[in-house]
Design goal:
Strand content: 25-35%
Radius of gyration: 25 Å
Number of domains: 2
CATH class of the largest domain: Mainly Beta
Number of helices: 3
CATH topology of the largest domain: Immunoglobulin-like
Helix content: 25-40%
Largest sheet: 5 strands, antiparallel
Distance between the termini: 26 Å
CATH superfamily of the largest domain: Immunoglobulins
Length: about 180
Amino acid sequence: MRKSILLAIIAFFIVCAPAAGHAIQFETEKHPPVVRVKSFFSPTSPVADANVTIYAPGENDPHQSGYTDKEGFFAFTPDRSGEWRFEIDDGMGHADRITVKVSSNFFDSEQESPGEIDKEEEAEAAERSSSECVFTEGIPVIYRVIFGLALILGVTGIIYGVKAKQAAKNNSTKN
């Protein structure tokens, strides 16, 4: 009985592991005036031809919508600073969303003269043109760890409960 329960637990984790591998991940690149978002399952598996909807900060109506290209890219031009919602759905059960923060520095591209760039301006330029990788796998890692531990402890409790019941039954039949 112990072996069959152990095999069932191992089979459960083997079967469920590939499902977590197909979570959508995002990489954003900000190059004024465009924000480009790459969506992918893994570095070699882009989310191609997926439906994309962009929502402006504080808006419930879509600002822009369309589809990712065959490489999983979608670009949009923000018209204000704030947190832009990016929602993607591949139509096959994989859907996710992220927020892309666009600061007011993103829209500033003024320079006094080409030779007079100080450290502060370099930092602002780096913020305007940046790249960010966001891994969203639906459930945060800490919750998955807690769930895994709870599952292991729960199964262990059930096993020991069944054993205690069997031991009590064996003791009562001997007396």
